[in-house]
Amino acid sequence: MKYGVIYYKDTDNIGDDIQTYAAYKFLPRVDYCIDREHMSDFVPDKKEFVKVIANGWYNHDKSSFLFSPYIYPLMVSMHFSKNDLITNPGYTFLDGYAKEKLKWFEPIGCRDENTAKELNKLGYKTFFSACLTMTIDPIGEKKEEDYICAVDLKPEVLEHLKSITDSEIREVSHWLIFDKDYSYEEKRKIIEEYTFKSFEDRAKYVEKNANLSFEERMKNVEDLLKVYQNAKLVITDRIHVALPCLALGTPVLLIFYEHNSDRIETFKQFLVNCTEEDFFKFKKEDLEFTNKKDFVKYRNKLKKMAAEFVLSDELPKYELPDIDVYKDFVNRTNYIKDMYKDRLYVANSSLREKEDELKKCREEKENEFKKCREEKEELRAKINELSTLADEYTRIKGSKTWKIIGKYYDRKLKKKS
């Protein structure tokens, strides 16, 4: 039996490699490294099944989502995203032909409840498996040291942390696109620019990591996990920092943001967590706590499931295509995909330019509207002032003094006439 790992070659986030590491540790060896963004293109050296633990996030390029027929996946700890870098297909990429193929491997173990809900709508059999990164074992001896890992925290959150602890704070980032230290604002700008680039342009940002061997990438993961393992505390908003820390026995605090709820809401039951607003109320004593233990039963189930899959002799019942036939199919399919991808990138680029123009136009109109509104408020203030004067005039005109003055001038006018 041959074994493979699914990884994201051009990842910008070492969290993807941590997910790969979690699967890799269950395998007796790795015969093939299969790029997550090109799974349907995979062809082994000979006509045979390759066992793969298919945990992880799927995926940027939906046109390459389906597993190659040679891949025999354990579909567990999976999260499906409805968006990609070219179009916004929703979950339609999991219907039709894809559904017909994926149902061979039901039930599908979903990493989070949102994924299970969306798959159930499409008629899949599912179960909540939680995340495979919760199965990671400690690496060597745990030696707790007096430092806190602050992983990709906002500057204001980091500053508050510094104000309530005397421990050393080690700033860590899971981003792989930075070639040097940048300020938080510089990082956000680079990330924003990077996000809207094509696959080819994005790959240039991560060449250093992408060109490493698989063994080197897994060593980098282990080195990072050791840093988390020996910390007295880890604070982050990243799920693939928090869950491995649970597995390693390191106290971890998850800062929860609503925009990540589809991926992270499920795991609040396992983690000590708070909102950013709540964290600003933290004092030194609030940083001392122990992790919840609710994740352990899911960890044990996942370990058992993965181990049994690797050892089992059972294989899919369908007939594999000949290698040469499938290679030709892949080449023809990629030729067509690349042709349309180029057009889609051009269309998307044009669309983004139009959106930028629209945004600029909207901002200009909003500024004009704001100016008109200010002028209107100024006019209303003047009208109110004049109205006050008119009321005062009416009051004075109706007063006894005004009437006496009026009669006095009336008499003078009569005398003159």
How would you portray this structure in words?
There is one protein chain. The chain has 417 residues and is of the alpha/beta class. The protein contains 14 helices and 13 strands. It has helices at 14-24, 97-102, 113-121, 155-163, 184-195, 199-205, 207-210, 214-229, 239-248, 261-264, 276-279, 296-311, 323-397, 400-416; strands spanning 2-7, 32-35, 50-53, 56-58, 71-74, 78-80, 108-110, 126-128, 147-151, 168-172, 233-236, 252-256, 272-275. Strands 10-9-11-12-13 form a 5-stranded parallel β-sheet. It is elongated, with a radius of gyration of 32 Å.
Biggest sheet features: 5 strands, parallel
Sequence of secondary-structure elements: EHEEEEEHEHEEHEHHHHEHEHEHHHH
* Amino-to-carboxy terminus distance: 128 Å
Radius of gyration: 32 Å
Helix count, DSSP H or I runs of 4 or more residues: 14
User: How large is the share of residues in beta strands?
Assistant: 5-15%
Low-confidence stretches: none
Work out the number of β strands. 13
Q: Share of helix among residues?
A: 40-55%
How would you state the average pLDDT, rounded? Answer: 89
What structural class should be given to the helix and strand makeup?
Answer: alpha/beta
| Shape, per Cα inertia axes | elongated
Strand order of the largest sheet: 10-9-11-12-13
